[in-house]
Amino acid sequence: MSDELHLIAHLVPRPGQEAALAEAMAAIIPQVVKEPGCLAYVAYESRDAPGTIVMIETWADEAALAAHGKAPAINSLAARFDELLAEPLRLERLRRL
User: Fold this and answer.
1) Are 50 and 58 in contact, with CB atoms under 8 Å apart?
2) Which of 9, 34, 50, 65 has its CA 20 to 30 A from that of 89?
3) How far is the first Cα of the chain from the last one, in angstroms, to the nearest whole number?
């Protein structure tokens, strides 16, 4: 069994903050993909809920995900969550079948 972690993160913007959220996400991606243990970190916009950012992430293991949570890139974005997000970030952990 692999230690890889697969996640989906849902970021729902406040009304009027859709572009700012997309720009903020796009700005951190180049830094995040260089973090140790980051295997995939890809942003999408939901077709069902325009403006909502859906991140598909794969991390080598729990330690890599924990380090990501303390890294400057994600913390710079998290510092803006009150301004940008209409609801708390929702993380969905996946288990491969």
Assistant:
1) no
2) 34
3) 11
Q: Could you tell me what percent of the chain has a pLDDT over 70?
A: 99
5-94 has CATH 3.30.70.100 classification: yes
| Full-model pTM | 0.91
| Residue ranges covered by each domain of the chain | 5-94
* Contact status, residue 32 vs residue 40, Cβ threshold 8 Å: no
Is there a contact between 84 and 25 (Cβ–Cβ < 8 Å)?
no
pLDDT of 97 over the 90 cut: no
By the 8 A CB rule, do 45 and 55 touch? no
